[in-house]
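Illustration 12: Signal recognition particle subunit SRP68.
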Amino acid sequence: MSKPGDQQLADMEVDPSAAAEEKPAVRFSINVLELMREAQMQHGLRQSDYTRYRRYCSARLRRLYKSLKFLHGRGKYTRRNITESTVTDVRYLHIVFYMAERAWSHAMEKKTAGTNAQQRIYMLGRFRKAVKWASLFSQLCSVKGDSRTSLEAEAYASYMKGALFFEQDKNIEVAMINFKNTRAVYEELGKYGSIENQLLCRQRIEEVEPMIDFCSHKLGGSSLQAHELLDTANDLLKAKMEAVLSETRSQQAASMTEFNWLGRRFPITNAKTRVSILKAQQLEKDLNGSATESIAADKKLGIFDKIFSAYHDARGCIRNDLASAGNAENIRDDLNGLDKAVSAVLGLRTIERNQLLVSIAKSKFTKHRDEKNERITKPEELVRLYDLLIQNTTDLTDLVSSGRNKNEEENSFIHEYELKGLAFRAERCFFLAKSYSSAGKRAEAYALFCHARTLTDSALQQLANSPDKALIQDLKSLCDNCRSNSCIEHATGIMEEESVPLKLSKGVSTMSLGDDKTKENKYLLDMLESYESAIGEPNTKGPCRIAQFPPPFQAVPCNPIVLDMAYNAIEFPSLENRMKKEKKGLLRRFWG
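Figure caption equivalent — predicted structure in token form:
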């Protein structure tokens, strides 16, 4: 139920005769963007609470009306229009501004709450009301405000118009033009003024950019991929973008009747299965497109997660169809083949994702620690990743080779991934040798480097006629690294063996027959004046001897025990003469 004051404010309308009146000489200045951002952030929109912000706008309007004595009658409502001649104080412009903000926040409140058909009509009505007040605000500022205020008011009105057309889902071109006008104004305003003003303009541009991209995408002229469009959208746009993209996928899926995999074709009858497979294929195109080099590794991992989710949805639909297929052998064979093909593609994408994780780990493995204290990959982590890759390739080849009648493409696919599995085993052996080397086990590290080189040579011989030049180049580099590291481990082991007699003779020379006590470990705090290492020998995992903790016990003198033995032998004098005597009355003397 609306309040009478709100009804009075809502019934205000623009007087078209305002343009004919005489312009005053006073020019007001309002930083519209700063006023709007401060009001929104301090009164609810930081938490996306549009109801609280609408109530603040209503309270602010009541205070402005009362301070300006711009009331609408007591008993009977009398409408009073705000015209150019009325604006003799900057607070009149604030009234029009907060009227637009209140209508916009009411529309956004209805939008976030979820609208049915009737509520959507009401929401669009509030957007129209916001556009009306924003247009009046722009008109009055062009006459009564300075140039910057007029420009900001024009950008504000363009944003409101674009939001209206955007929500109506009509005239998308007009909505995009209004949003682009808003962006152009704030780009120019962001070049001047204080740092705070430039930051506000930058934030406003970032809010408008996703809406422009969405309009361009809907018109078919966007250069962004689907996942990038969703990543740049805010919370209010994501639901609408998902709905539009799902509708587009459903239209494309209607023409998708079969799934091709290794020369075999499997019919797809379920619409949900088609949509899920089509979504995964579109994400794969975004991942393997021409702009894949510019995509960050974290975003690539996010796209892989979406691909896995889409293929899992498709497998769920296929297995539901299998459960309801009954005894129809032809249908069950097609569904089993489709399930196998989708599972194989899922395994293939899992291998690609794990290879991406390996490349990220390798880039951190070769780095040195810098001021940022970045975490460096340990060889054990790479061994674990290659274990996963070996398991993935084994599962994939087992899945593809499980059929009875395999065609030529399936045989070549199995052979290719068997060779990749051999390359993964060589890489795993190399990093396992690195792990033993870091632990100081020279003999084991040398043997593992030699074995990794043997596996690499075997893989290179089998890949001699392979078109995968990148894999061959990686294996050649791995072969060189195995050879160099094995030589280093061999030399280091010989040096350590040569130093063993020297250490033994040094230890024997320091032995003493008269001193049976073992050598105590000295701590750094106890030998600050002598230059001796407290860290220990290299390639050992002993703790650093900085200070002993907990601290050792120290002897502390205790307080003496006093036994008073003369107390019982002392005779103390009588004190009765010093005691206070009790006074008795006359009656007490007779009766005691």
